[in-house]
Amino acid sequence: MLQYFNQGMMAIVALAYLNMFTSQYKLEPAEMQYLSSMIMLPWSPKLVYGIFIDTFPIFGSRKRNYLIVMSLIMTISSLLVASIKFDSASTVAILLTLMGFAIAVMDVVIDGLMICQSRKDADYGSEDLNTLGWGMTGLGGIIGSLAGGFIN
């Protein structure tokens, strides 16, 4: 549930970096769109992430250790963006791309765990878990958007 909520809260990050690119780095719309596209690029090859995770476990674990490593990458990259004023918007975009990669990999891991858990209840397992996951994503998106608007 927390990972899906986290994904929804990414709305606040999107609002923040768009505002940062506009006000701090004075980027033109074309430059902002280019960097925004680069930031979202890690979400495209999610199938490859799933194959990689299932093929190459970290210290014997196919799921848990990937969540730990990707959480660390996400935390470090987001703290760097939040705490250091970089001279270049490209540096910020690279860190945000790394953060997006970590979140996309965690999404693949969580989706795999959801499939395993849904098999325990053949009749309603997938529907109930899907409803819960999308509900948490929506709740996180609403809270993240409201918080981003309030902070902005």
List keywords for this structure.
152 residues; 6 helices; 80% helix; 0% strand; globular
List the helices and strands and how they pair.
Blueprint: H1 2-23, H2 29-40, H3 46-55, H4 64-83, H5 89-118, H6 125-151
Helix pairs in contact: 1-5, 1-6, 2-5, 3-5, 4-5, 5-6
Overview of this structure, please?
- The chain has 152 residues and is mostly helical.
- The chain has one domain.
- The protein is 80% helix and 0% strand.
- The protein contains six helices and no strands.
- It is globular and about 55 Å long.
- The mean pLDDT is 87.
Short description, anyone?
The protein is mainly alpha-helical and 152 residues long. The chain has one domain (2-151). It contains six helices and no strands.
Order of helices and strands, N to C? HHHHHH
Oligomer: single chain
Distance between the termini: 27 Å
How much β-strand is present in the residues? under 5%
Q: How many strand segments?
A: 0
Helix content: over 70%
Task: Return the average pLDDT rounded to an integer.
Answer: 87
Structural class: mainly alpha
